[in-house]
């Protein structure tokens, strides 16, 4: 019976690490926040299990940390994209890419180029 607990603790901790790392590497595409959320939950459950079994604590902690960072980066990326879209909303129907670049530069810096 202890082997079953050991395997499940390692499995949850391993899954938390994998989801945390994938979430972190995809966090600027927002999907990383979702994966990070799942990884965070699995990591917390794995930490709880590791307290009882003594196995998988390092992996679980790594999963929690990477998942939390993935969530934070996803939130920051979302805030940046909303800010950028709001700041450059007047530039969305340019006649050319050059006009778009000039408009964005003007909107972000206040300088016309």
Question: What does it look like?
Answer:
- The chain has 113 residues and is mostly helical.
- Helices cover 81% and strands 0% of the residues.
- The longest helix has 31 residues.
- The model has no long low-confidence stretch (mean pLDDT 85).
In short:
By secondary structure, this protein is an all-alpha fold.
Main sheet overview: none
The percentage of residues in β strands lies in under 5%
Determine Rg (CA atoms, Å).
21 Å
Distance between the termini: 71 Å
Number of strands: 0
Query: What's the number of helices?
Result: 4
Give the SSE map:
Elements: H1 2-25, H2 31-53, H3 57-87, H4 97-109
Observed structural traits:
mainly alpha; rod-shaped; 81% helix; 113 residues; 4 helices
């Amino acid at each position: 019976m202890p082997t079953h607990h050991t395997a499940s603790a390692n499995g949850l901790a391993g899954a938390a690490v994998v989801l945390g790392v994938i979430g972190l590497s995809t966090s600027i595409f927002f999907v990383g926040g979702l994966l990070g959320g799942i990884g965070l939950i699995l990591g917390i459950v794995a930490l709880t299990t590791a307290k009882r079994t003594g196995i998988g604590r390092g992996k679980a902690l790594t999963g929690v940390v990477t998942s939390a960072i993935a969530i934070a980066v996803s939130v920051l990326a979302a805030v940046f994209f909303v800010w950028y879209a709001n700041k450059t909303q007047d530039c969305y129907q340019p006649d050319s890419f050059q006009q778009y670049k000039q408009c964005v530069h003007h909107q972000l810096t206040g300088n016309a180029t």
